[in-house]
Amino acid sequence: MAAVESGLPQVQKEPSEALQIGVKSNGIESIPKDELRLSSSECVVSIKEILAQPCQDDEERPWEKLSIYQIPLYLKNGEDKAYVPQIVSLGPYHHGKEPLRPMEQHKLRCLRCILKRFNHDIGPYLDSVKKEEEAARACYEGTISMSSDDFVQMMVLDGCFVIELLRGVSMGFEELGYSPNDPIFSMRLLMVKIQQDMIMLENQIPLSILDLLLGLQLGVLIPGLVARLSMQFFDSLHPNFSGEWIFNRSSNLGRLHCLGVFWQSMLPFNSTRSETKQQPRSWKLFIRCLTELRDARIKIRLTYTDNWGDIRFRDRILWIPQLVIHDGTRSLFLNLIAFEQCHFNCSNYVTSYVVFMHNLIKSPEDVRYLRNKRIIMHCLGSDAGVVDLFNELSQKVALDIEDSYLYDLSTEVELRCFNWYSRIESLQIKCKKWKAILKHKYFDSPWSIISLIAAFILLVLTFIQSLYAVYGYYKVGY
Question: Which InterPro entries does the entry mention (predicted)?
């Protein structure tokens, strides 16, 4: 490489005649073959030397350990508020930003309270996290430009703050030694904002670090305890209040974080699709809108289930669990979708549900119908806000419909309820309905029938009279 680099300045200082800027008579610049051959050989040597160098990303950044990602630009769509914390920073991505610095003093206050409560010294915490530094850095996407000491201190400070929040919500902050009028933990609105910050993909601490720090506090490592505490902490954000929190204890939660635990708790234990014979389909729509489904005599019913995404179809009835939409739903779903879009070998359960609901809901009338069925409950101010919400959530989302857990359901709905036989049957039912309306509204008395018969006879006589007049005109005159 040194030979190549030393040669480059000579070419720039003493350019050949063919490389000098100028337009010849024919308007085409030419490069001598020997110089072109030299340039190509230099390029090959340069690429070979670059490839021969050890790749830091391959050796020091094992991609399979990634779980905390920076939001891709194509998902942000100019929107930062849903992905950027507003109150507290956790982890390296937003560490030290000016709007989030006021919370740093409260993190230190929590750490002092923990050390005082357990009569501990800070040394074991720093030493234990130092041993896990490499594994913790590997959880984050991209290069973390922090020194080893700064990174370890940040992990301890942020991790202890998260644990104190989780335990405080579970046990009560007064039980942990905090004042009833604490400037942070007694402010309900502020706690809601902190809760929403802690569910953002770019604002996470690896669960393995949280387990380690809680184990140091309690004196014993209890696997899954932080996961259970975090599920209790985020209970109010869950989109289905009727279900209970569940998560697969056999999964590798150590690679995840609070958002990952929340995401996994929303999955069914068996989210794989049944291996059924697929029928060829030419349509690209996931599911038809609610108006079309109702016109096809498909009933919509509320189902009570522990799994918020357990949508089912049988006997021309579409069973949908209840969805609770609140102020934090938008940011929650955006970050869950971003996690599914970024995480390796990750299911698209949440993305599939959002796209399904986006296709189902196309107008405020659709939302009103689902609200009357208690399938959707929201506090957005208007039904149009729900339509806008799903429109925004579905923008620029990459989803292979055939890989969705709802693909079989949408196929069954289409094949059973929108074939030619079903359309003819639906038309016959509509004709019967129109006949009933006509009879009830216009023929509810015998006088109406007599008037209709008289009008019909008069219409026939008039037609016959006109026919004879035209016939006579052509027969006599022409």
Answer: DUF247_pln
pLDDT tens profile 315-338 = 889 999 999 999 899 999 999 999
Distance CA 312, CA 353 (A): 12
Question: Helix, strand or coil for residue 468?
Answer: helix
Q: Give 147's contacts (C-beta < 8 A, 6+ positions apart).
A: none
Pair type for strands 312-314 and 317-321: antiparallel
Q: Taking Cα atoms as reference points, which of 163, 232, 236, 195 lies closest to residue 88?
A: 195
Q: Which of 35-44, 216-225, 294-303, 463-472 has the lowest mean pLDDT?
A: 35-44
Contact, 347 vs 263, CB < 8 A? Answer: no
Percentage of the chain exceeding pLDDT 90? 50
φ/ψ of 300, rounded to 5, equals -110, 125
Task: Please compute, for residue 44, the number of CA atoms within 13 A of its CA located in the half-sphere on the CB side.
Answer: 6
Q: What is the DSSP string of 365-394?
A: HHHHHHHHTTSEEE-SSSHHHHHHHHHHHT
Under 8 Å CB-to-CB from 171, ≥6 apart: which residues? none
3-state secondary structure of 354: helix
Nearest to 225 by CA among 234, 235, 216, 215: 215
Do 230 and 309 lie in one domain? The reply is no
Question: Taking a C-beta distance cutoff of 8 angstroms, is the pair 310, 405 a contact?
Answer: no
Q: Tell which wins on pLDDT, 13 or 167.
A: 167
CA distance from start to end of the chain:
105
Are 340 and 404 a contacting pair, CB within 8 Å? no
Q: Tokens representing 367?
A: 């939302």
Predicted confidence band of residue 176 (pLDDT cuts 50, 70, 90)? very high
Contacts of 449 (CB under 8 A, 6+ apart): 443
Residue type (1 letter), 176: L
* Average confidence (pLDDT) over 125-141: 96
Angle, CA of 155, 156 and 162, to the nearest 5°? 85
Q: Is the pLDDT of residue 12 over 50?
A: no
Q: What distances in angstroms separate CA 8 from CA 15, 29, 53, 282, 464, one per listed residue?
A: 11, 21, 21, 57, 102
Where on the phi/psi map is residue 338: left (φ > 0), alpha (ψ -120 to 50), or beta? alpha
On whether residue 170 sits in a domain, the answer given is: yes
Kindly state whether residue 113 falls inside one of the protein's structural domains: yes
* Residues 126, 166 within the same domain: yes
Residue 62 lies in a domain: no
φ, ψ for residue 319, nearest 5 deg: -95, 120
Return the number of other C-beta atoms located less than 10 Å from residue 207's C-beta: 23
